[in-house]
Each structure stands twice: as C-alpha cells, then as structure tokens.
From TrEMBL, chain A:
Keyword Nucleotide-binding: yes
Gene Ontology molecular function, alphabetical: helicase activity
Record-annotated Helicase C-terminal domain positions: 218-364
Keywords per UniProt: ATP-binding, Helicase, Hydrolase, Nucleotide-binding
The keyword Transport is annotated on this UniProt entry: no
Domain Helicase ATP-binding as annotated: residue spans: 24-191
Protein name: ATP-dependent DNA helicase RecQ
UniProt-listed InterPro entries: DEAD/DEAH_box_helicase_dom, DNA_helicase_ATP-dep_RecQ, Helicase_ATP-bd, Helicase_C-like, P-loop_NTPase
UniProtKB/TrEMBL annotation, chain B:
Protein species of origin: Planococcus wigleyi
The organism's place on the tree of life at top rank: Bacteria
InterPro entries for the chain: Helicase_HTH, YpbB-like
Protein name: Helix-turn-helix domain-containing protein
Residue ranges of every copy of the Helicase Helix-turn-helix domain listed in the record: 247-334
Length: 475, 341
C-alpha cells in the first residue's frame, strides 16, 4: 500500500509531516505506539490514515469535550461521514441508532467518564475495535500539568476490551510522563516516537519590569511596533477584557476571549481572528484548542504560565507556517505570588476533601453551593473512590509538591542567564541539536525580522445593514 | 426598547400587586404557575421569556437604577411605582414572547447557517467551519438547502431579495436591523460579539440583546405575513401549535380521561400544587374551561366581585375577605375572569 497515495486520496495532503509516516507504519505493523508530536504537527492523521486500512472501528478517547467536538468537526469537514461522538451531549433520540449501529462507525469518540459506564462498556465489548487511541495521553499523568483523574479510567476498560492495540498521542511529555503512560495503558514493548520538542522558528524572549504599570506600557509600545496575528495570554477573564480595551485605545484591532462568553460569541472571535479581521486576541488559557491558524506571529504571556509544559503548548500555537514567531514572557515584580495561587488553585483543600468525603462523590450540590470548587471536586471525588481519606490527603500533598516543582521551573526560567531554548528542551529530557541563529533573549534577539511583518490591510466594516448583507451575499 | 423600559412596562402592569422579582421571572420565561398565570392576569404575553439567559445580578442592578432615577419607591412587599413612572409611556415594541417561546433562536440559527453556506458556496468556497455546530440545526439546514436547490445562483439571489424585502418592510429601527445583520457571518466577514455590537452603538449589552429579540419577533411576523417562498420555510415548527406547556398538556389529557386532581398528582408523582398550577394554566387558555369541579359557582362570583370591587389581583387581599376560598380557587377564578369575564 502506498501511504502517500492514500494520504492524498483520503485527505488531500501530498506529503507526510515529520514523524507521521514512522508512527503510521508502526501502527499498521500492529505495534502499540506512544507518539510525542508537538502541537500543530498533525497528530490526528496518525490514526485517521490507519483507519482507512484497518478492518474495524477506531476508538478514540478524548479527555476534553471541546477538543472532541473540534476533532469530530474537522473529520466531517474532510468529508468523513462515519463518525460518532459518545459524550454527555449525545441526544436521547439519537442513542438508539448509535447503539444499534455502533460497530459500523469507523471513528468512535468517547469521553473517559462515558467509557466506564456499564452500558457503554458492554456495548463496546460487543464490537470489533482495531485500534484504541488515547488522545492527549499526558492527561493520564498525575505529574502532568493537565492531570485529569477521569482519564485514568482508560486502564479499567482495557481488560474488558481484551487489550486492543493502542496508540497514545501527546504533544508534551517528559520521560517520567511517558513511563506513566506506558504503565497505565499496560503497554509491554511499545514503539515510542519522540519528535524533537524544539520549534526552531520560535524565538524566546523574557521582559522584566519593576511594576505592573511598566509592564502595561511595554505592551502598549509592543503592539504599536509589531503587528499580529498574535495571542496575549492573560491570567484571568477580567484581565483579558482589560487588555483588549487597552489595545483598542491604541487603535489596534483586538478582541477578548474567555470561557465566560456565550458559545456563539467565542465562535465569532475565532472566526474574526482566522479571517484576519482581528490582529490580537487577549485570552485566558481557554483559547487555542482547535484553533488552526498557521500565521500567528506572536504569543505574549502577560502573566506567568504555571508550568513549562503548558507554556510550550501555548507558545507552540505560533509560527505553524514555519515563519519566524516571537514568544514574549512578561514579568513584573510580585507576579510569582499570583503564580503560586494559580498553581494551587486546582487542588482540593483538606476542607474540600472532607466535604466530598462526608457527602459522597455524587454530591455535586457542593459545587453549586460554592462549598467545593469544580476542578477540586473532580480531583477529590476520583481519589476518594480509590483511597481511604488519609491516603487522599497524602496524595494531595504529593500533587502539591509536584505542582510546586513545576512552578519552580518557571521561576528558574525567569532567572536564567543561559540559553532559554536549551533549558526548555531539557525540561522534556531532550537535548538541543541545532541552535538557530535567532534563539532567545540571553543569546541576543534580532527583532528586525518581526518588524518586517506588516499589519493586514484593515477591512472596512459595512456601515448599514443593507451594505452588510451585500458583503455577505455579494451576488 | 431598552432593558429598563422592558422592566418598567411589566412593572406598570403589576404595580402594587407583585414583588420586585416577579418581572425577572417573567422576562426569563419561568414556567411556574405564578408566572404563567400572571401573563394572563396582567396581559403580559409580549414579554414572556424574551431574555432566557438573564442574570439576576444584572436585573437587580437595573432595578437599582430605577430606584435612583426616581421611578420606584421603597416597599418591602410589592412594586410601588412613583407618579413619574406611572406617567411615562410604555415604549412600543414588536416583542411577542408568548407566541415564539424562545424558538426565535432556532429560527436565527437556521438562518445563520443558511446564509453562511450560501455566502461561501456562491463565492466558490466549498469547505468552511460551520458557524452553528448543533447537530439538529445542521441536519435541518442540510435538508432545507437541498430542497431549495441552493447551488443554483438564482436561488441565492431570490433568497437575498426576500431577506432584503421582508426586513425592509419590518417596522423596526435601522439599528435593530443592523444588529440582526451583525450576528450573521459570511465568507470573509464574521459575525460580531455582543460586546462589539454594544460598543459600536454605545448601548449596554443587555439592550443590544433585547433589541435583537425585538428585531427577530418583528421580522418573523413580517415573514409570516408576506410568506415569501424561500424564507417562509424557516418558520417550520417555530410557532407552537398549542400555547400550553408540555406538562400542563399531560395533566389535561389525564383530566379528560376522568382522573381527579389528586389522582393526577399521585399518577404523575407531582405535588398537588403543581397540578393546580396546570389547571390555572388550562383555565387561562380555554375560554370554555369548566371550573365547577373546583369552585362552587357562588364562590366564583364572590371572588370575582371582591377582585373588581377592591381593584386587586393580589391573592392575599382577596383571601383576607373571603377566608372560605382556597388560594387555588382564587387563582382559578381570576384566570377565568380574564378570558370569560
């Protein structure tokens, strides 16, 4: 089978991107595979293409609802019709059709919490599964920056499905995390593909200030000097709105984006950014997943990221077209205090653990009443089903220490006098092979290349409704 | 109509008879007995459920503004408007909340996806990210587009002309029409967020959202009236045939089969007070509702006379003078009076 030909006929791409071919060949050879591919390197193709050859269904376990929806939408956009998503959004009237034809779907997406429901489990046992894909597999690691306890439940389904062939995909994993993935998924001798984590066209910059005002002034100057498209990550929803207004005052087109906005508004902002109607997005970390914009030139962190892994993932949204992109980390004295509170934010406190313990893991009213925070509830209720109370507290202590270590790495990055790129790569247990000439602030940055990018031509917004209709339907 | 004008319009109708939060429930479209029957008592049909996502905090802030601007007097129990408020005109509005029941959003989602598709396909673009990802809307639009033969450019032309003509003939301001258009997306022109729309018109977000619903209600009425060949198709299933809530309908069916109120409550495993709410709703909607199983005709007359004489629809005021009547009987009688009296 000529894989290139298949790639072209099935998905319209004329060549593989680095890593894809190796991974696909191993999958087709029947091996379990753990694949580390940086964001934007086309992870999905690694199971989409084998699905064209494998005889039966491909089961994809996806930890984030929004990500799952995006993947389903992307598959459908490519003309794939045999797709089903089993999550809490599955409508009762569709259920019967889905369950009775489950085995006929080529791509079955399942969320981890649905996976372990007895009925779902039983239905999955009745069909033939060629490949189980664990997407965003780093979520399995309690040391990872994005730990999702529910995700551990994959290990519970494996025996029930007779240990199918597994492909674990992630964009970010240290050796330690890779080992955890291998262990949890019971993979004996997996083929492990590690793509070099370094993105050589991304230049790393850090700017330090005495106070918040200076930081804001710098940002004002920055967005007047350099043009987008760019993302500015703010720590909070409120901050994202403030920064967006600040940009608007400078006459620079921007919009804010955060999880508190209604769905349609978020779609509009994405679309505006994609269409080049906006230069900047000021956002919480909610923005980025499922955003497919190749020419993002800047990622600015107005607030400190909480882990190197998270930082690399956010920065990795820039420069997917291979052109130079600048990652600017802004720090003002005192920012680490916020960092520490953010780092600890997701973990349940002892008080919260006890509340969940007393009321049981079904007591979601604790969230509504504001007694336990949502993510804290998720983490606490998972561990309570696994360990006695004493053990849960110990577990949290371990996790807390792990998070401290991650935050410590960010602090180290800030204080570094040597190459930032080398340090970041070393956090993933890799070594830098080739150092690009435009590397990082500690090795000197040539900003000229970024100043050369010109702002996109301002589009005139139509002035009255008839005009707007004419632009939308210019027929 | 601005958001505070909406609140005022409702308050004027229920002045001194309802609490400060009752307009909130009405605007949100709460399906409780009290809210549903108030629509009938006070003729508030247009305003029912026009902002289903309304936040209580935002409502409270608007009420505070009304106090500060001298439209409301402090009163622990009920709404008490000042003469200034009573003299103010109710802003005219095409709102028709009871009729459309929030389905205007489905209408608009269909329209958004159709317009986006036509915008792209007519400009030679075959692949794009759909602006609406609800599967039932996507499935509906797919069928609709196939039916009208959307690849034919003259069809696109006709669709656009019908849109232009009906909206031109809708009696709403140009700003209303602009807001509608700004919530639509096409190839290379994206819809605007509420914040962007509000900023550009120096409106509050809630005002812009209310104007959007007004514009939709006005326009949908114009479409229903003119019945343009392509656009009328979008109204499919949008207008509820029965104005009853689903749950009240189920109670009605059981009652018609001869079950008593108490039997229905135990059959449906609902509180009797809930079933009572259903009967009040049924009474409101049926001019020939037979109340005699629930209220003795003499008591009925006495309740109506009391309400007329004291010019009140407050249950407690009537109950005080007619202690032998239950609250349910008073509510039922008042509901019937609106329609039959």
């Amino acid at each position: 089978m000529n894989l290139e030909k298949l790639l072209y006929s099935a998905y319209g791409f004329s060549s593989f991107r680095p890593g894809q071919r190796e991974i696909i060949e191993q999958v087709l050879a029947g091996k379990d595979v753990i694949a580390l591919l940086p964001t934007g390197m086309g992870k999905s193709i690694c199971y989409q293409l084998p699905a064209k050859i494998l005889p039966n269904s491909v089961l994809i376990i996806s930890p984030l609802l929004s990500l799952m929806q995006d993947q389903v939408a992307q598959l459908k956009k490519m003309g794939e019709k045999s797709v089903v998503a089993i999550n809490s959004f599955l409508k009762p009237e569709d259920k019967e059709k889905v369950w009775s034809n489950l085995g006929s779907y080529k791509f079955i997406f399942v969320s981890p919490e649905m996976l372990v429901q007895p009925y779902v489990k039983q239905k999955l046992q009745q069909i033939r599964i060629s490949l189980l894909v664990a997407d965003e597999a780093h979520c399995i690691s309690q040391w990872g920056f994005d730990f999702r306890p529910d995700y551990l439940r994959i290990s519970e389904i494996l025996p029930a499905l007779n240990f199918p062939q597994v492909l674990a995909l992630t964009a970010t994993a240290t050796d330690k995390v890779t080992e955890e993935i291998r262990e949890y998924l019971s993979l004996k001798e997996p083929y492990i593909y590690r793509h070099p984590m370094d993105r050589e066209n991304i230049v790393y910059d850090i700017k330090k200030f005495d106070d918040q005002r200076d930081k804001l002034e710098f940002l004002k100057g920055f967005i007047c000097k350099f043009s987008g498209p760019g993302i500015i990550y703010a720590g909070t929803r409120k901050k994202s709105q403030e920064l967006s207004s600040l940009l608007a005052e400078q006459g620079v087109s921007s919009a804010f984006y955060h999880g508190g906005m209604e769905h349609q508004d978020r779609v509009f902002v994405q679309q505006q950014f994609q269409n080049g109607e906006l230069q900047w997005i000021c956002s919480t970390n909610a923005f980025g997943m499922g955003v497919h914009i190749p020419n993002i030139r800047h990622v600015i962190h107005f607030q400190l990221p909480t882990s190197i892994e998270g930082y690399v993932q956010e920065v990795g949204r820039a420069g997917r077209d291979g052109q130079p992109a600048l990652a600017t980390l802004l720090y003002a004295q005192g920012d680490e205090a916020l960092l520490e509170s953010l780092v600890m934010d997701d973990l349940p406190t002892q008080h919260e653990i006890e509340a969940v313990y007393r009321n049981g893991t079904a007591a979601t009213h604790l969230i509504d009443q504001g007694i336990v925070r949502e993510t804290a509830f998720r983490v606490a209720s998972y561990w309570i089903t696994k360990l006695p109370l004493e053990g849960v507290n110990k577990q949290m202590e371990l996790l807390r220490r792990g998070k401290w270590e991650q935050a410590a790495k960010i602090r180290e990055l800030l204080s570094l006098e040597s190459c930032l790129r080398s340090y970041i790569i070393s956090c993933f247990d890799q070594q830098l092979a080739d150092k690009p000439s435009n590397c990082c602030i500690n090795d000197g940055i040539n900003y000229e290349v970024f100043a050369e990018f010109l702002p996109p031509a301002e589009k005139q917004q139509p002035l009255d409704w008839q005009d707007r209709l004419r632009v939308i339907l210019p027929i | 109509m601005l958001f505070t004008e909406l609140i005022m319009a409702i308050m004027k109708a229920v002045d001194r008879q309802r609490t400060l939060t009752s307009p909130f429930h009405l605007i949100k479209g709460k399906k409780s007995g009290q809210t549903i029957q108030d629509i009938g008592y006070f003729n508030l049909y247009p305003y029912f459920g026009v902002l289903p996502k309304l936040d209580k905090k935002a409502y409270d802030q608007a009420v505070q503004r009304l106090f500060m601007e001298g439209y409301l007097l402090e009163n622990e129990q009920v709404i008490e408007l000042t003469p200034k408020a009573l003299d103010a005109e109710v802003a005219p509005s095409p709102l028709n909340g009871w009729k459309y029941r929030g389905n205007e959003i489905i209408f608009f989602q269909r329209l958004s996806l159709i317009v986006q598709t036509l915008s792209n396909t007519s400009q030679g673009i075959k692949i794009f990210d759909p602006i609406v990802n609800k599967e039932e809307v996507q499935a509906w639009v797919k069928m609709y587009l196939k039916r009208i033969g959307f690849r034919d450019l003259t069809v696109v032309q006709t669709f656009k002309e019908q849109l232009l003509a009906t909206l031109t003939n809708t009696e709403i301001s140009e700003i209303h029409k602009m807001i509608l258009m700004e919530r639509l997306s096409g190839h290379e022109l994206s819809g605007l967020t509420w914040q962007q729309i509000a900023d550009s018109k120096e409106l509050a977000i809630l005002d812009a959202q209310l104007m959007f619903v007004e514009a939709l209600h006005g326009w949908m009425a114009a479409i229903e009236h003119a019945k343009p060949s392509l656009l009328i198709g979008l109204m499919e299933g949008i207008i509820q045939q029965s104005s009853l809530t689903e749950t009240a309908k189920r109670t009605e069916k059981l009652f018609e089969r001869g079950f008593s109120l108490e039997q229905i409550a135990s059959l449906r495993q609902l509180k009797t007070s809930t079933i009572e709410d259903h009967f009040v709703e049924l009474a409101m909607n049926d001019p020939y509702f037979n109340f005699t199983p629930f209220v003795d005709p003499q008591l009925y007359e006495a309740i109506i006379a009391e309400s007329r004489q004291r010019k009140t629809k407050r249950l407690r005021d009537i109950k005080e003078h007619l202690p032998q009547a239950s609250y349910f009987q008073i509510r039922l009688a008042l509901a019937i009076r609106e329609e039959q009296g």
